[in-house]
Amino acid sequence: MSKAQYAIETDPLPESQPAARNTASRYLRSIQRYVWDDPDKPAKEKWFLFKLDIFFLTISCLGYFSKNLDQANISNAYVSGMEEAIGMKGSDLTYASNVFTAGYVLGQFPAVILATRVRPSILIPTVEVLWSVFTFCSAAVKTPSQLYAIRFLVAICEGTYFPVMVYIIGSWYTRRERGKRMTIFYTTTSFAGMFSGYLQAGAYNGLNGVLGHEGWQWLFIICGIISLPIAFLGFFFYPDFPETTRAFYLTQEEIEWAQKRLVDDGMKPLGESAWDRSKIFRIMAQWQFWLLPVGYFLVQGSYPIYQPAFALWLKATGHSIYEINVWPTGQYAVSAVVQILAGILSDSPLFRGKRWQMLIAMQVPTIFACIVLACWDVPLGLKYAAYYLTYTCAGVPGIYYAWYSELIPHDHEMRGFVIAASNIFSYIQSIWWTLTVWRTVLSPRFHAAFIGCSCLGVALVLFSILLRFLEKRDSKKRARANGVTSDEETVVTETLQ
């Protein structure tokens, strides 16, 4: 057989193979365009984003994971023996939560102002080391008063982290890159909650009594061990801001290009206008300063996480320590899946960076679930489903913070200031909110709390429609300011979205 005959017999349709490969390639690129960044970006931009994701986004997620792990462990410790061991009674868990909230609030405004004066690559890892040390100390508390003091110190340090990280993420990624990354960052809250439950179950079963420590004490010790090395990595991986970065993984050309692309995306350079009294007044004159914090209170108030309600119900109905710690982790699994999908879809060509549709889609199932739990006397299967569905709105905060960057695209410092204001307003409101409807003595039913969450959820849906209206109005104003009118104005408005 000749070579030509052999080729024909073994590859009867050789010309179809390149076409098939091209079709498969186009299909994969189309999927990538929806799931991640546009595959048609220039090679240098893709390489820049890859490095930024590997170093900056990864250490941000690890830091936020350790923060939420240290924050969530008190609920797991409470239902696993700490309540009895240190003599907690009545609503002591609520009071510990409110003390934490007070410390968290105090860390907010100084953090975003300090972040422009002290390198975040020094500031953030330093507070991470401190909260790791205080987490170790939590294992040694003997009374509720000691617990309050330690929780306050942990909160002061952790209060610095979130607003600064949201500030920095918004300073490196453009509007079409920001949503999915912000939700990935925020999803680590869910993973921390899941991990804490499994960790506490394992500590209770395998370490209870080891070296004279109870299982709940080992939870704090292990959390501190996890947090400390993450803190030290932060000294090397956090890139500061594009204007001040000295990250080892970015070239000078990439740094200059990163600054330019953020300006092209509508953001003013860091420090273009110095902090002074007139600047604060200018910020306060914007509608964003007043409305966005109200929206974030609705976001947080409609999310039923102020008490481990599912775990407390399981404890009240006689379930084992293992079940109490592990079954609620399914709530965090629901929240993680929903958050990631919402971030991907909101950045995809389907929604083109719009946030309000995803926000409403995540909030509606939680509203339904809260109504079910407010009714309470429902079939057991429906009650279990409702507890899991309450966490579908876990992705709302990440989407909401990504939306900030579109609503405040023109001023670096204003974004940080409004983020801090939103957090402070939200957490101050949460103190009276928890004392009113989420007190531990109201467990396991929390009747008024679930009614309140459903009402605030409806209010948030309506509020998101209002924000969408204001967003479109501002986009049209910017289009007119650029000299675009009539049909062209609509095109520019859509581009800005």
Automatic annotation (TrEMBL):
<feature type="transmembrane region" description="Helical">
    <location>
        <begin position="184"/>
        <end position="204"/>
    </location>
</feature>
<feature type="transmembrane region" description="Helical">
    <location>
        <begin position="447"/>
        <end position="470"/>
    </location>
</feature>
<dbReference type="InterPro" id="IPR011701">
    <property type="entry name" value="MFS"/>
</dbReference>
<dbReference type="Pfam" id="PF07690">
    <property type="entry name" value="MFS_1"/>
</dbReference>
<feature type="transmembrane region" description="Helical">
    <location>
        <begin position="147"/>
        <end position="172"/>
    </location>
</feature>
<feature type="domain" description="Major facilitator superfamily (MFS) profile">
    <location>
        <begin position="56"/>
        <end position="472"/>
    </location>
</feature>
<protein>
    <recommendedName>
        <fullName>Major facilitator superfamily (MFS) profile domain-containing protein</fullName>
    </recommendedName>
</protein>
<keyword id="KW-0813">Transport</keyword>
<feature type="transmembrane region" description="Helical">
    <location>
        <begin position="326"/>
        <end position="346"/>
    </location>
</feature>
<dbReference type="GO" id="GO:0022857">
    <property type="term" value="F:transmembrane transporter activity"/>
</dbReference>
<dbReference type="GO" id="GO:0005886">
    <property type="term" value="C:plasma membrane"/>
</dbReference>
<feature type="transmembrane region" description="Helical">
    <location>
        <begin position="122"/>
        <end position="141"/>
    </location>
</feature>
<dbReference type="InterPro" id="IPR036259">
    <property type="entry name" value="MFS_trans_sf"/>
</dbReference>
<feature type="region of interest" description="Disordered">
    <location>
        <begin position="1"/>
        <end position="21"/>
    </location>
</feature>
<dbReference type="InterPro" id="IPR020846">
    <property type="entry name" value="MFS_dom"/>
</dbReference>
<feature type="transmembrane region" description="Helical">
    <location>
        <begin position="95"/>
        <end position="115"/>
    </location>
</feature>
<comment type="similarity">
    <text>Belongs to the major facilitator superfamily. Allantoate permease family.</text>
</comment>
<feature type="transmembrane region" description="Helical">
    <location>
        <begin position="416"/>
        <end position="435"/>
    </location>
</feature>
<keyword id="KW-1003">Cell membrane</keyword>
<keyword id="KW-0812">Transmembrane</keyword>
<keyword id="KW-1133">Transmembrane helix</keyword>
<feature type="transmembrane region" description="Helical">
    <location>
        <begin position="216"/>
        <end position="238"/>
    </location>
</feature>
<feature type="transmembrane region" description="Helical">
    <location>
        <begin position="385"/>
        <end position="404"/>
    </location>
</feature>
<feature type="transmembrane region" description="Helical">
    <location>
        <begin position="358"/>
        <end position="379"/>
    </location>
</feature>
<keyword id="KW-0472">Membrane</keyword>
<feature type="transmembrane region" description="Helical">
    <location>
        <begin position="287"/>
        <end position="306"/>
    </location>
</feature>
<feature type="transmembrane region" description="Helical">
    <location>
        <begin position="48"/>
        <end position="66"/>
    </location>
</feature>
